């Protein structure tokens, strides 16, 4: 869903039962307004550092793959390592 700004997105998140989000500002907004979420952690952060207990944090588990800020070949490998369990 496209919103005009972050504040509008946070307002929408506040009124849903749960949401699927990438790690980042919106998952922090969901935690701030107490909305349950499934959060996809790629190659940037470990949910042990920026995850929330009321969220389901999906992470590939490879600590050596952290720190990627741009979508590139290595970051795509991190995302591909996430599987159903």
Question: Can you walk through the features of this model?
Answer:
The chain has 85 residues and is α/β, with parallel strands linked by helices. The protein has a single domain, classed as Rossmann fold (3-Layer(aba) Sandwich). 34% of the residues lie in helices and 16% in strands. It has 4 helices and 3 strands; from the N terminus they run H-E-H-E-H-E-H. The protein has a 3-stranded parallel beta sheet, with helices on one face. Strand 2, helix 3 and strand 3 form a beta-alpha-beta unit. The longest helix has 9 residues. It is globular, with a radius of gyration of 13 Å. The protein starts with 5 loop residues before the first helix and ends in a 5-residue tail after the last helix. The mean pLDDT is 84.
Helix content: 25-40%
CATH superfamily: Glycogen Phosphorylase B
DSSP, total strands: 3
Indicate the overall shape: globular
CATH architecture: 3-Layer(aba) Sandwich
Strand content: 15-25%
SS class: alpha/beta
Report the CATH C-level class.
Alpha Beta
Q: Order of SSEs, N→C?
A: HEHEHEH
Q: What's the story with the biggest beta sheet?
A: 3 strands, parallel
How far apart are the first and last residues' alpha carbons, in Å?
28 Å
Number of domains: 1
Please, what is the oligomeric state?
Answer: single chain
Per the CATH scheme, the topology name is Rossmann fold
